[in-house]
Specification:
alpha/beta; globular; about 45% helix; two-stranded antiparallel ribbon; homodimer; 11 strands; about 260 residues
């Protein structure tokens, strides 16, 4: 079970899971306010979901704003994510080569600490981001999302393995359950991946049915969980304070006899 | 997913899991104080682990004390349990026919609302208790414990099925995990049993490793969880207040979108 690392150093005191709050505002001003408010809730990192940002087409502004968001959050590590519309993100006015160029600019300026790219992106695109993150010492999250269903545990494990093969520092899988058995399948695959792979992994089962996974995932090897700040970025995210309270109970229980 | 019932009525508002606090004091005076203190923590029922009671050999006293404990706890339902030393209980000066006679006396006096007998007890003993509980309208829990290991999920499911075949109103399985995978196996079997059987089921993975199951078991069909009052009766039990706090978070999350 590996914790999330930034610049090679574990965050959240090396404990699983690190708690991340997504930033989903549309304007720079609203994002700065959202980052400052999120920081007060005590997360371990923030994720900027840049596909929500109205200025995503202005590269220099995005790069500068990323650094400002980190500063507004008191220096919390920042995860930079353009979620594709195919995997649940917002439609944006950039094509994929432009998205790649944006990631490369972010990496070169080191204005984020981690970046997220989808496993199913063009392999050349993934490789180029991998090269940019390595050069800049940025943590690469390779992710997979399915908002409709939960593939069998064996397929989920294969997604984690693919993230590792593609050079991820963190493999992330977020899927929608249709039954409680699907929630257990996600936890099982996350646990197996955390044992089998030399990278950090993050697994989450979405929606109300899967919300329990956001609390207990860390017990089964998940290095990262998302809690809602001003707004959730995916279904089933709990308010950060609630998430923290439940994690504290589990932590004390795991330390008990 | 069936809730725990007493006299045919669901307890804990029909929600899963009902929270039970064990009473483990050795004297009548200490037990009455323990019951009153436990009731203040807001459990849904109490379990009297009568194998801890120094007066277990005096049937009339046990029967009267059971009723007094229920009264001391403001009328909370009382689960009456003699745990055998083979399954983690205390040594007692009664032989099995004497234990059966004690259960029959408790049922006849209706001084408990539920009673727990082990699945692996003598089948004639189980049948006799079954008859006594049916005659008295008392809920029968048939239980299995393994303090060393967790059998495979298929075997755990078979224990639940056996509890049902033997006439249980509630099938309970409590096992010790040696890995996180064992915790998932217990949750999986509990979930499958809750779907497959027409009775309430309760599943718990013990110790620090399994403590998470005491919080999330209800999400996977477990109708009953144990939280420590003055003292725990099995390894991994959380303080009731902590357990309640974590359950409240999960409940709000399950109601979220």
């Amino acid at each position: 079970m590996r914790p999330l690392t930034v610049q090679g150093r574990p965050i959240a005191g090396g404990r699983l899971p690190a708690v991340c709050v997504p930033l989903v505002a549309r304007t720079a001003q609203a994002l700065l306010a959202e980052a400052a408010a999120a920081a007060l809730q005590g997360p371990d990192l923030l994720e900027w979901r840049v596909d929500f940002f109205e200025g995503i087409g202005r590269t220099d502004e995005v790069v500068a704003l990323a650094a400002q968001l980190r500063a507004a959050a008191g220096g919390l590590p920042l995860l930079f994510t353009r979620r594709s519309s195919r995997e649940g993100g917002q439609p944006i006015p950039l094509d994929e080569p432009q998205v790649l160029a944006l990631y490369q600019a972010i990496c070169q300026a080191r204005s984020a600490d981690l970046v997220d790219v989808e496993i199913e992106a063009d392999p050349a695109h993934v490789a180029a981001v991998r090269e940019a993150t390595r050069a800049a010492g940025i943590t690469l999250v390779l992710s997979f999302h399915d908002f409709q269903r939960t593939p069998p545990a064996s397929e989920l494990l294969e997604r984690f393995r693919r993230a590792h093969r593609l050079g991820a520092d963190v493999g992330k899988v977020a899927v929608m359950p249709q039954s409680r058995a699907d929630v257990l399948a996600l936890l099982q695959a996350t646990w197996e991946a955390s044992q089998a792979l030399p990278i950090a992994v993050a697994g989450m089962s979405m929606g109300a049915l899967g919300a329990v996974s956001r609390v207990v995932g860390g017990e089964f090897g998940s290095a990262l969980t998302f809690g809602a700040g001003q707004a959730a970025s995916a279904p089933g995210q709990l308010p950060v304070a609630d998430l923290r309270a439940a994690l504290a109970v589990l932590r004390s229980a795991s330390g008990a006899s």
